[in-house]
């Protein structure tokens, strides 16, 4: 059984549902049922007895886009683990790009960031190149950057707080830096943080990293480690936006691409293309009356 949930413009939802049902029928995968679930939002749930997940996602894109969606091969339940990327996911910025602005290098570094997120560059090489360009920048620029530039993404606090209230552990794992991630984790109340460390000497960035690289393989390893600690059967939620997030998105039961680059979006069985991060909650079946606000 494939279960597809979506939130879309509902002004002509019935017409689009009829068109999608006809498409499923012609492909030999007729809808078993379609209904609005009680999640405090207008969440349409469709069930199909068979079919490929990618085909279902493509059909939803064709008839309902822009939409926030989740497609699962099992009954959807509240996860016990949430593992998320930070930059452009839990916060609205790319920290290294904003920090580069204090060194007058934002355009140069953001161009490298974009190519890395698209999967066009090797992550480690791109990271080391960008960090190298920041050599000599005062460490105090990080505090200014945090205060002036870095903000949580819409819905981030409510998402983490609500998941926590429902017994879900949250881990922030980033290819970015602890200088930023530790503070973001405090703001959003994550339980654990994994990231890279910028080397500092004499109050200035050296242009190097201190310790092992946190990359796509790290994100996947952290997800697996945390899931193993919870035991068999615990559902896992992951969110990200770039190529570096693909392994953990694919490994999660509910892998969400948040306004993501094409490669990450194609790898995900959940997508946020329309709302903010709180859209994940009704797609998981958590009604608005059970959200933790403020």
Number of strands: 12
CATH fold-level label of the largest domain = Rossmann fold
Judged by helices, strands and strand pairing, the structural class is alpha/beta
CATH homologous superfamily annotation of the largest domain: HAD superfamily/HAD-like
**Any idea how many domains?**
2
In the predicted model, the low-confidence regions spanning at least 5 consecutive residues are none
- What is the architecture of the largest domain at the second tier of CATH? 3-Layer(aba) Sandwich
- Strand order across the largest sheet: 2-3-1-4-12-11-10-5-6-7
Overall, the morphology is elongated
Strand content: 15-25%
String of helices and strands: EHEEHEEHHHHHEHEEEHEHEHEH
What is the subunit organization of this protein? single chain
Can you count the helices?
12
Protein model, in words:
It contains 12 helices and 12 strands. A hairpin with a 2-residue loop joins strand 8 and strand 9. The radius of gyration is 20 Å and the shape is elongated. The chain is α/β, with parallel strands linked by helices and 294 residues long.
Provide a compact summary of the structure:
The chain is an alpha/beta fold. The chain contains twelve helices and twelve strands.
Topology:
Blueprint (H helix, E strand, L loop, with lengths): L1 E6 L5 H14 L4 E8 L3 E7 L4 H12 L3 E5 L8 E4 L10 H7 L4 H12 L5 H11 L6 H9 L7 H10 L3 E9 H11 L3 E5 L1 E4 L2 E6 L6 H15 L5 E5 L5 H6 L2 E5 L3 H6 L2 E3 L7 H4 L11
Parallel strand pairs: 5-6, 5-10, 6-7, 10-11, 11-12
Antiparallel strand pairs: 1-3, 1-4, 2-3, 4-12, 8-9
Helix pairs in contact: 1-2, 3-4, 4-5
């Amino acid at each position: 059984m494939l279960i597809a949930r979506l939130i879309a413009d509902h002004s002509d939802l019935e017409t689009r549902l009829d068109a999608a049902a006809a498409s499923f029928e012609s492909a030999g995968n007729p809808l078993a049922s379609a209904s609005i679930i009680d999640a405090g939002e207008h969440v349409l749930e469709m069930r199909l007895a068979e079919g490929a997940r990618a085909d279902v996602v493509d059909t939803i894109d064709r008839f309902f886009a822009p939409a926030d969606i989740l497609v699962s091969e099992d009954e959807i339940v509240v996860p016990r683990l949430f593992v998320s990327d930070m930059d452009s996911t839990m916060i609205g910025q790319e920290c290294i790009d904003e920090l580069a602005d204090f060194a007058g290098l934002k355009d140069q570094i953001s161009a490298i960031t974009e190519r890395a997120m698209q999967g066009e560059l090797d992550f480690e090489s791109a990271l080391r190149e960008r960090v190298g360009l920041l050599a000599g920048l005062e460490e105090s620029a990080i505090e200014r950057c945090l205060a002036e530039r870095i903000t949580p993404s819409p819905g981030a606090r409510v998402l983490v707080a609500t998941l926590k209230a429902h017994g879900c552990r949250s881990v922030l794992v980033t290819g970015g830096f602890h200088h930023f991630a530790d503070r973001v984790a405090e703001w959003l109340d994550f339980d654990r943080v994994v990231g890279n460390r910028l080397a500092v000497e004499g109050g200035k960035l050296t242009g190097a990293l201190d310790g092992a690289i946190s990359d796509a393989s790290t994100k996947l390893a952290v997800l697996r480690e945390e899931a193993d600690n919870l035991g068999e059967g615990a559902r896992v939620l992951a969110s990200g936006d770039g190529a570096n997030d693909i392994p953990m998105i694919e490994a999660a039961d509910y892998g969400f691409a948040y306004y993501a680059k094409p490669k990450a979006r194609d790898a995900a069985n959940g997508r946020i293309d329309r709302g903010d991060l709180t859209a994940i909650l009704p797609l998981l079946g958590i009604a608005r009356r059970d959200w933790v606000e403020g």
